[in-house]
Amino acid sequence: MMPMAGSSVAVALCLGPMLVAAAYDLISFRIPNVLPLASTLFFPLAVLAGGATDGTLAGHLIGGACGLAIGITAFACGALGGGDAKLFAALALWGGIGQLLPLLVVISVQGGLLTVFLVMARNWNLGLVATRLGLALPIFERTAPIPYGVAIAGGALWLVGQPNWL
Fold it and tell me: Given CA atoms 141, 143, 148, 149 in this order, what sign does their dihedral have?
């Protein structure tokens, strides 16, 4: 079990890049490479702060590798953008192999809900309404992609609420 201080550090190190990536994805439909990289590089710091065991560490590394394979496959199929795939791999590292399937389910449900909301909002011409109000919200344009980084960040929020997540 991690000490409370380590837990707070780990939560901040995990969520920080994920939430920034979600914001970037909402605004520009892009996730800068530095954010998944930062999340990945922050992981060892969190492990040191929390004192994870070698067995736990191996499970996280395997989870990260599986997350990368899933992300690359989803990217190759056109289901995710490249930034989304890298962000998912970084989050899978944090969750480890034990949280990989629940993480996939949580992210898929959140991504599905986000997609339904955006399709409905786009069909209701909320982008036109926003433009008339003086707001430039490209997320509501009919041809805009779905910012799946938001769902991945939602998965991170779910993950840090799980007991013994690191």
Answer: negative
Question: What is the token pair recorded at 10?
Answer: 């780990």
Q: What is the pLDDT along the chain (166 residues), one digit of tens a residue?
A: 333 444 788 888 899 999 999 999 999 999 999 999 999 999 998 888 776 666 688 999 999 999 999 999 999 999 999 999 999 999 999 999 999 999 999 999 999 999 999 999 888 877 777 777 877 778 888 889 999 999 999 999 999 888 777 7
- Structural domain boundaries, residue 151: 4-160
Count Cβ atoms below 10 Å from residue 114 Cβ, excluding itself: 16
CB-CB contact of 83 with 149 (8 Å): yes
Specify the pTM: 0.88
Closest CA to 154 of 22, 13, 9, 11: 22
Instruction: Kindly state whether residue 166 falls inside one of the protein's structural domains.
Output: no
- C-alpha closest to that of 128 among 119, 141, 117: 141
In a domain? residue 146: yes
Q: What is the number of structural domains in the chain?
A: 1
